Input
Amino acid sequence: PDFALGRGRSGTTDRLAEIGRSFGYDVEVVPPVIADGQIVSSTLIRELIQAGDVAAAAQLLGRPFTLPGVVVTGDQRGRTIGFPTANLAIEPDQVTPANGVYAVYARVEGQRHHAVMNIGVRPSFGLLQRTIEVHLLDFSGDLYGKPLVVDFIARLRAEQKFPSVDALVAQIRADIESARALFAAQA
Output
């Protein structure tokens, strides 16, 4: 009902219906979809994703939010602490969830893998560049240069700084166990 078109969004649904009649098609105005007392809209879904509430966004979308990318070379820090990650390069205008750790499915070469994803600046290492990296559980193989699509299931926690690498490793292990529990609950 709030559709607009043309210069300055001055065209209304009535104008669109008029145009339709001249070209031989009908225009039907669809009433808004309401969920939990809110109008479902692309704006609301983007806001949920950017806030990290990927589970709520999935409910409104009717499917998980997906993030496509290509695996690129990172600084390989994850490998040195026992958790190799696939660093994703994404389109610059792609909406992304808030910084944090997520339980996700990673789809690559027709296979779906349980995974844990980190989005953020990795404050434990004093870095400032935001990265998107995914650790595929129980996976080994070369992913460099391959397209990879991530299906977000749930946010596990916000990004945080750890006092030591050992503390970070312990939290990553806990994150993986939390993700495995979510995957088992979905099976």
